[in-house]
């Protein structure tokens, strides 16, 4: 999985070409290749070339394409450009292709110089077609061979009867639109159909059984029930999402997310799901907890499948418990998917074994979040023990106070302590020291949120992999 996506200036669309005039300059095999593709769309294909390959001669003789037997000069092309939907340049002369391309672009007519993306305003992807289903793969002209490889891989995993499934869905579309006017609910009906036995039945050509299955789903009548999925997104690195999280991220109608859920994670949410930021920052509550609860309930009752996406695990300092209680009270169905908590993610990526058997019998997760009066109210006698590891969430702001309290309650000043900033992310930093040194290290290194404090002898057992 890729953490972040690079920008590309190419935008994929599907163009309706039936009846449209398309010009192809050139009459060799490269031109023939494109003409074949174009003819299958029902476009009116006009070739500009003094000579034609045997294949093109046949297409012209069959009336599938038309030819003007002239040189592909700028003048001859210009004469034919008005009213043209798009142009392919397939002369074997690169300089000429470039000149003709500039001419088309000056008139805003989409133009592709075959194998020369630099001078093209559109490019042709590697394509695979199964009935109405078309998959196009592009590398933006950077690596056409790679695009063709990917296409071959996709073809391998495409089920054989996909065209039948697409045809079935197309035939049922109009009737379904009348029966279920709400597009979000319609989408859910189709998802149930595809997730259940409907897909395989339609692909096998068993149209009647597929229709019965569709009717059954519609009769169930509860397609409108919304629900809430409380999902842990892990500590930030998309590699640490669970498969369940990923699936629900792909199915959700809307997503309510916190500030711990970064753009790299949101990239994996279904493109047209509505994104609602409900992040909480100390002293800057975007939406108070009761507001979030109310919003979850409102959306679910309106039939949405709402993804409540939280950093780490929803039940570890995530207020997941409160949200679920509110849902239960309101009678809203829910699902809870655990996530890798910051303690697990940070410890693993920093190489700190949280319960090394030589020194830790227990591992305690505590919050370093201050009370309203700015102090920490914790059971220090049970926390400041040498036999256990202490993991402190939200402990960055009060790190000095935390370290001081631990020393006051019996831990030595030189007791090992670490802080992990941006754990599991590319920007992760790890500082190790002692209870006495950590606050100054945090200040000197300008450590920022999110950061996790780990206290205990396990910090001395930190392991770092040698270069591979
Ligand atoms: N539910 C979350 C915790 C929410 S509290 C979980 O299970 O991880 C927020 C705190 O988690 C932050 O203040 C920080 O202490 C910690 N945290 C979350 N993600 C982190 C990360 N990537 N690196 C370091 N600390 C992190």
- Unreliable stretches: none
Task: Give the proportion of residues in helices.
Answer: 25-40%
Largest sheet: 5 strands, parallel
**What proportion of the residues form beta strands (DSSP E)?**
15-25%
CATH 4th-level superfamily of the largest domain: Tetrapyrrole methylase, C-terminal domain
The total count of strands amounts to 19
Domain Sirohaem synthase dimerisation: 162-218
EC number: 1.3.1.76, 2.1.1.107, 4.99.1.4
Domain Tetrapyrrole methylase: 228-438
GO molecular function, one term: uroporphyrin-III C-methyltransferase activity
SSE arrangement:
Layout: E1 21-25, H1 29-39, E2 44-48, H2 54-61, E3 65-68, H3 74-80, E4 86-89, H4 94-106, E5 111-113, E6 126-130, E7 133-137, H5 144-157, H6 162-179, H7 183-195, H8 198-203, H9 207-220, E8 227-232, H10 243-251, E9 254-257, H11 263-266, E10 274-277, E11 280-281, E12 284-285, H12 289-301, E13 305-310, H13 320-330, E14 334-337, H14 342-350, E15 362-367, H15 380-383, E16 388-393, H16 399-408, E17 416-421, E18 429-434, H17 438-444, E19 451-455
Parallel strand pairs: 1-2, 1-4, 2-3, 4-5, 8-13, 8-14, 9-10, 9-13, 15-16
Antiparallel strand pairs: 6-7, 11-12, 16-19, 17-18, 17-19
Could you characterize the architecture of this molecule?
There is one protein chain. The chain is built from 17 helices and 19 strands. With 468 residues, the protein is α/β, with parallel strands linked by helices. A hairpin with a 7-residue loop joins strand 17 and strand 18. Helix 7 crosses helix 9 and helix 12 packs across helix 13. The longest helix has 18 residues. It is elongated. The mean pLDDT is 92. The chain binds S-adenosyl-L-homocysteine. S-adenosyl-L-homocysteine binds next to helix 14 and strand 19. This is Siroheme synthase CysG. Its EC number is 1.3.1.76, 2.1.1.107, 4.99.1.4.
């Amino acid at each position: 999985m890729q953490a972040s996506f690079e920008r590309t200036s190419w935008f994929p669309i599907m163009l309706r070409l039936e009846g449209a005039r398309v010009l192809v300059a050139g009459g060799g095999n490269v031109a023939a290749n494109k003409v074949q593709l174009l003819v299958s769309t029902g476009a009116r294909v006009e070739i500009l070339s003094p000579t034609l390959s045997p294949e093109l001669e046949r297409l012209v003789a069959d009336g599938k394409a038309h030819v003007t037997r002239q040189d592909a000069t700028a003048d001859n092309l210009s004469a034919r450009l008005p009213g043209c939907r798009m142009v392919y340049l397939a002369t074997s002369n690169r300089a000429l292709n470039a000149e003709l391309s500039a001419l088309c672009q000056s008139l805003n007519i989409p133009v592709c110089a075959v194998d020369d993306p630099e001078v093209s305003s559109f490019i042709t992807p590697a394509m695979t077609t199964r009935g109405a289903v078309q998959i196009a793969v592009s590398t933006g002209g950077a690596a056409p061979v790679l695009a063709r490889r990917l296409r071959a891989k996709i073809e391998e995993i495409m089920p054989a009867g996909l065209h039948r499934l697409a045809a079935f869905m197309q035939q049922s579309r109009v009737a379904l639109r009348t029966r279920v006017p709400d597009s979000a609910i319609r989408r859910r009906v189709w998802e149930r159909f595809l997730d259940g036995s409907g897909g395989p039945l339609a692909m096998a050509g068993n149209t009647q059984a597929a229709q019965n299955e569709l009717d059954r789903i519609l009769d169930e009548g509860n397609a409108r029930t919304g629900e809430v999925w409380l999902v842990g997104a892990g500590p930030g690195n998309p590699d640490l999402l669970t498969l369940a999280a990923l699936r629900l991220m792909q199915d959700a109608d809307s997503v309510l997310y916190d500030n711990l859920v970064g753009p790299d994670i949101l990239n994996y949410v279904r493109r047209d799901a509505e994104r609602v930021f409900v992040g909480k920052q100390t002293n800057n509550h975007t939406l108070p907890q009761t507001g979030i609860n109310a919003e979850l309930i409102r959306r679910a009752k309106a039939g949405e499948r709402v993804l409540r996406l939280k950093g780490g695990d929803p039940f570890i300092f995530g207020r997941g418990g409160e949200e679920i209680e509110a849902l239960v009270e309101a009678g809203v169905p829910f699902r809870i998917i655990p996530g890798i908590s910051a303690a697990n993610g940070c410890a693993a990526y920093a190489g700190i074994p949280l319960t090394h058997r030589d020194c830790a019998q227990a591992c305690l997760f505590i919050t370093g979040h201050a009370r309203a009066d700015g102090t920490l109210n914790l059971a220090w006698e049970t926390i400041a023990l040498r036999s256990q590891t202490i993991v402190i969430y939200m402990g960055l702001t009060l790190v000095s106070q935390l370290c001081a309290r631990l020393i006051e309650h019996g831990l030595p000043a030189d007791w090992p302590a670490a802080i992990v900033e941006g754990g599991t992310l590319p920007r992760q930093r790890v500082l190790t020291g002692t209870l006495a040194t950590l606050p100054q290290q945090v200040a000197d290194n300008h450590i920022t949120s999110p950061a996790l404090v780990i206290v205990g002898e396990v910090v001395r057992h930190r392991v770092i992999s040698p270069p591979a």
